[in-house]
């Protein structure tokens, strides 16, 4: 009987397919997928999930949670003053890490509206990775709720139930939707009656933004860029006044 060459090649091909199918699971096990990278080339943080107590941990040292009874006691009558229209349930307590002006790692505290809590832990995590210096990150209650005193100490802060300086209108800080960063170097500047007014007054040397100096927030600054990427408005863009320390988001829709 003559040798059938086509049958021989069919058998060889079938054997090869069988071997490939057998090896495929092993190959997939030995070749793990590459990690997902963030825009800066670092491994992307895992998705944030709340635990049983409502705490959401973004990275080690960076989390937010509902206000505890202890925190409520700390702020009631100070930043959470009489007539505060924001329920405790709408606020979040943030724990962050930051690099201070001595290049040392410190633990910071922030209270904000729940609507921006995730934004803030992401932003402060990126600032921490970059070694971006912040002199102080404490609750404004440590200064008796006195915004001017907090600014004079260059303290970064967020929630404070108060009106806009010089007006009767509630500030976005009153809703926990605004934050002031390194305020001594990035002052609030107005021109009542055509005369410049700088707040805090000690920040007057830093009101001239044509000058170059450390801790200055402008459009080239990492802090500005991180907030802008997440839809915050910067007070440095306002026309009738300038609030170089200030980033805010709109009020949540009812």
TrEMBL record:
Keywords: Signal. GO terms for molecular function: peptidase activity. Residues 166-248 form the Peptidase M15C domain. Coiled coil: none annotated. The keyword Cytoplasm does not apply. The keyword Cell cycle does not apply. It comes from the Bacteria. It holds the Pfam family Peptidase_M15_4. Residues 1-38 form the signal peptide. This is M15 family metallopeptidase. It comes from Candidatus Eisenbergiella intestinigallinarum.
């Amino acid at each position: 009987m003559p040798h059938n060459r086509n049958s021989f090649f069919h058998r060889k091909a079938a054997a090869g397919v069988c071997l490939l199918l057998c090896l495929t699971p092993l190959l997939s096990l030995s070749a793990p997928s590459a990690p997902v990278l963030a825009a800066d080339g670092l491994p992307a943080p895992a998705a944030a999930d709340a635990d049983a107590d409502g705490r959401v941990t973004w990275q080690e040292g960076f989390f937010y949670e509902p206000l505890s009874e202890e925190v409520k006691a700390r702020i009631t009558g100070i930043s959470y003053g009489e007539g505060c229209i924001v329920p405790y349930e709408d606020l979040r307590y943030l724990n962050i890490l930051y690099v201070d002006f001595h290049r040392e790692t410190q633990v910071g505290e922030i209270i904000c509206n729940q609507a921006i809590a995730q934004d803030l832990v992401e932003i402060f995590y990126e600032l921490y990775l970059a070694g971006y210096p912040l002199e102080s990150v404490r609750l404004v209650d440590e200064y008796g709720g006195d915004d001017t005193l907090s600014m004079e100490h260059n303290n970064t802060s967020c929630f404070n139930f108060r009106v806009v300086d010089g007006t009767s209108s509630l500030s976005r800080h009153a809703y926990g939707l605004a934050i002031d960063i390194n305020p001594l170097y990035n002052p609030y500047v107005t021109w009542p009656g055509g005369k410049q007014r700088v707040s805090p007054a000690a920040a007057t040397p830093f009101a001239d933004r044509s000058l170059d100096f450390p801790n200055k927030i402008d459009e080239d600054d990492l802090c500005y860029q991180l907030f802008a990427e997440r839809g915050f408005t910067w007070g440095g863009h306002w026309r009738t006044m300038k609030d170089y320390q200030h980033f805010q988001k709109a009020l949540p829709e009812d």
